[in-house]
Write a structure and sequence with these properties.
The protein is mainly beta and 237 residues long. 7% of the residues lie in helices and 54% in strands.
Length: 237
């Protein structure tokens, strides 16, 4: 496997500079969420939560073919007094279901999108659940809601996306905006680029691209792995 060592080095330096949630993120990220901040949620173009939207990404990892199908459902779940949107996510490897996740997101009155947890199931090749590791819910066992996308994302924004100590500790660092990306879906302008990682997997760093009105359009390991997923289709039901 060939890794982008220079990109990984840049990210590791950035990780060393980030303390807590970093600049550009509301104080609520550290202090917890207030339901009053979610009474008039504003849409975020880089993380749309329009029910009925289905995003399909294809790619590869370790020689296997991946397909990721993400659906914004009409279902909701109230967590810490906030009504979150349920996003159903399915990951297939070589045509076989590998992981099924229900994620809980909510946009606040400023357009920041928060992540309130997930219910995850990992399957073996026989269709049996073998793990639920990574599942968490804000307010339960010390878990804290994190931010998945700021309202006005820009370079140097750094923030915790989730926190359940020892189980879910993803973080992100935005390094560019106004980028252009060419993916199977087509050419996308005004792209946000970020590096994302977790302290639970030292040395593994993912580069993610977010497109306006689309959400994640590409995710690619730049250190510690070789996973690649790219947006190929968006459907509205």
């Amino acid at each position: 496997m060939r890794r982008n060592a220079s990109a990984a080095l840049v990210v590791m330096v950035g990780i060393g500079l980030i303390a807590g949630y970093g600049p550009g993120v509301p104080a609520g990220a550290a202090a917890g969420v207030d339901p009053a901040d979610f009474t008039n949620p504003q849409p975020n173009p880089y993380f749309p939560l329009e029910p009925g939207t289905v995003s399909i990404l294809r790619g590869s990892e370790d020689g296997g073919h991946l397909l990721n199908r993400s659906r914004v459902t009409a279902s909701t779940k109230v967590i810490l007094g906030v009504t979150t949107t349920v996003v159903a996510d399915l990951l297939f490897r070589d045509g076989v279901l590998e992981e099924k996740t229900a994620d809980w997101y909510a946009a606040d009155n400023s357009g920041n999108v928060w992540y309130f947890g997930e219910r995850t199931a990992v399957y073996n090749r026989k269709g049996q659940v073998v793990s639920r590791e990574g599942s968490w819910q804000a307010g339960v066992k010390g878990a804290v809601a994190g931010m998945i996308m700021p309202a006005n994302p820009g370079p140097t924004d750094a923030y915790r996306q989730e926190f359940y100590k020892g189980h879910a500790e993803d973080q992100a660092w935005i390094v560019a905006r106004h980028q252009v990306a060419r993916i199977p879906y087509g050419n996308v302008n005004q792209v946000v680029r970020s590096y994302e990682w977790t302290r639970l997997e030292p040395g593994v760093v993912s580069l993610k691209l977010y497109g306006p009105g689309l959400g994640i359009i590409r995710e690619k390991d730049v250190a510690g792995g070789d996973e690649l997923l790219e947006l190929v289709k968006v459907e509205h039901h």
